Here is the input.
Amino acid sequence: MKEQYWKHINGIAIDEIPEEHKKQIETLRQYGLGLEEQSVYGDILEWLKMHDGKMPRAVINKSGKQATREEMTEAEHEEINLYYRWLRSPERVALEACKRNTNRRIARRISRV
Here is the structure.
């Protein structure tokens, strides 16, 4: 199935998909592909609401040392995964670009004074 077509059927009800692709789509959706998903930005907003505005941690420390994956709980795994998903997300890249542009404009205004 072409990638362009896949983007257009993401989140669409199976009844609306052409008959020749239904079987493929049903199989893929059993594995969680092609379902409507919340963005990483939405996940980060939920995290911030539940954790008093604190970002997820990149590293988990136990007994003064960095914990290995085996020493971490499932919740700690999810926290680290969310942090790294956020680092790679297009939303974060866009926010950082806006921040850089704003800082440049402020610097230009200050230099004119």
Summary: Helices lie at 3-9, 19-30, 40-50, 74-88, 90-112. Residues 40-112 form one domain. The chain has a mean pLDDT of 80.
